Amino acid sequence: MTAELVRGQNHTLPQTRLEIRVSVGTPVVAGATLGDENGTVHGTEWVAHPGSPRLPGLEVSGQAAADHRLAVDLDALPASVHRVTVLLALPMGVGGPVRFGAVASPFVAVTGLEGSEIATFTLTGLDAESAVTALELYRRQGAWKVRAVGQGYAGGLAAMLADQGLTQAAELAHSIQDAVARAMARSVAPPPPHAPGPVPPSDDRRPPVASPTAAQPPELTTPPSAATTGGPINYAHPRRQSSAPPPPPPTTPPAEPGGPARPVAGDATGWSMEERLYNQIWGMFEDLARTTAAYRSAVDFAESRMDQELDRTLSDPRNRIGGAGDRAREQARTKRDELTARAREVLDRDLAQLAAESAVVEPALPAAYAGWDNPVWHAYRVPMEIPMALRIGDLHLPESPDLRIPLLVRLPLERGIWVDSGRTASEAAALRDTAQLRRLAVENVVAHAARLLAVYPAGEFSVHVIDPAGSAAGALAPLVDSGALAGPPAAGAAGVASVLAQLTRRVDLVQMAIRAGAADSLPPDLDTGEQLLIVNDFPHGFDDRAVTQLRYLADEGPSVGVHLLMVADREDTGAYGPLLDPLWRSLLRITPVADDHLADPWVGHTWTYEPLRMPPGSRVLEQVLARVAAARHPRRF
């Protein structure tokens, strides 16, 4: 499976001979630098560019182009090289775009020589930058990894090279741009096509969501921890594809002339209906975030304007007493209310549009994206391939509590999940007793495990359970009774040690096979399918060795198909102090009851997470698990 990276994320490279493919839609300069263990470029001979396209183990394009293929042989690099940084820059002085904000989002893919994608990265949020560090390949403990960077430079190629420690950055940047300009001047424009082809779709074919006129939050052009200022909100999600897959089907005509178009399920770009629905859901999430941010900004602006007007008026002592001051206050509040009402009107219009779209999209969702109350589960059949993503809950904002956006996580899982069973996790949790909350948490975990089992082909996903004290026997019954588990739940210290040792061995063997390029040498008894470990009531039943193994699985497991699903109350682990802090940070925290804990760094929202609920009296969970077990063990049924 292809790893779709976001800024700062890394991924282990399974091979050393690679191609890096770049697609921008407009001619760009593509190059690469070689750096030492600190990322420092020690001279111009460490830079591959159109004027010097070949270095040991590295070859780049010899001219500016809209599409590039860079060849990399990591084994052929000099021993002093620990980092290969891929850079993109717009040609200067040729009459083309001078900032990346004016072109399509660059798309970069790391592939094998046969063309299979290993990792992809879409560089979103660029604006005034004319050069950008796209990604880097780096050596860590003998293994090579790729990291998505996306760092832009308004100072252009010279600023980017100088940032990597190159002392002759300005001179080299000038010579590269000069060589590219001369090459483009000599190039011959291709003849026009015989017939006009279809216009490639843009990244977002959704109708725009209006925003009230107000001071906007800053556009994000750097990772979430370092935002820049200026410009409107740019909430393009890093996973949204910006290349040109087939366009969505034609939108249904408006219900009334001049009115908004009727929403259509799958109204987004994508190669399949599943991908279109995935992109459409993310589009709905972005639109809700964007219009809510605009509304909150407008309300803040109205409040700030009222305060400023009152300060100006009441700064004159003559207006502080008598009717003049009262009239000034009343006028300022009236203007504030008018601006707020106008912003709310726009928000309500956008929410109505999104609610209509949600009403069309929800019934059309496949099982992996659907809630338990969707009729698609009653017609469930074991799939032949895994889907793009899995729904693990819903998200909503205070301004629109009835409008729920599915929370989708990509498959295979890129990080473990922690279901917080603590009573201090949220206000809703504090209203329930400890036993009830822990039972809800385990039931939530069982539902997630059932969904994961249901969306994987038969035999390609196994579930292991650690329940040291057997306290979750009742809640785990659907998994145990159906026969869908790889084995009975492990209890006691011996059971905990056995399961952890088995999965740790699997991670070690697969990692060694990948690094050695010998995947076919794995032991025949090793299950190469995806593995899920459910841990209940952590850290009870875990000694220091078991805790260390669990941390290892959380860190290293996802990259080789071992995933963690935990039920734990963080207060129970207080005796370990900060030792377990990295474990909690590595997991996606969700709750068994509604809680507004999911922070959105792009526009600053705090989303309320709502777990998926089973319809009262429904047997859909048992039916789905029975079909999964029948496909897994056909001779038993």
Shape, principal axes of CA atoms: globular
- Poorly predicted runs are 187-244
The portion of residues forming beta strands comes to 15-25%
Tell me, rounded to a whole number, the average pLDDT.
Answer: 83
Total helices: the number is 11
Class derived from helix and strand content: alpha+beta
Rg of Cα set:
28 Å
Total beta strand runs: 23
Report on this structure.
- The protein has 637 residues and is α+β, with helices and mostly antiparallel strands.
- The protein contains eleven helices and 23 strands.
- The chain has helices spanning 156-163, 169-186, 273-314, 323-364, 427-430, 434-455, 477-482, 492-516, 544-556, 581-586, 620-632, and strands at 3-5, 10-12, 17-35, 47-48, 54-55, 58-59, 65-73, 83-89, 107-112, 117-122, 131-140, 143-153, 252-254, 261-262, 389-396, 405-410, 417-420, 461-466, 530-538, 562-568, 588-590, 595-599, 606-610.
- The strands form four sheets. Strands 1, 2, 3, 4, 5, 6, 7, 8, 9, 10, 11 and 12 form a twelve-stranded mixed beta sheet that branches. A five-stranded parallel beta sheet has the order 18-19-20-17-21, sandwiched between helices.
- A hairpin with a 5-residue loop joins strand 6 and strand 7.
- Helix 3 runs antiparallel to helix 4 (323-364).
- The longest helix is centred in the middle third of the chain and has 42 residues, at 273-314.
- It is globular.
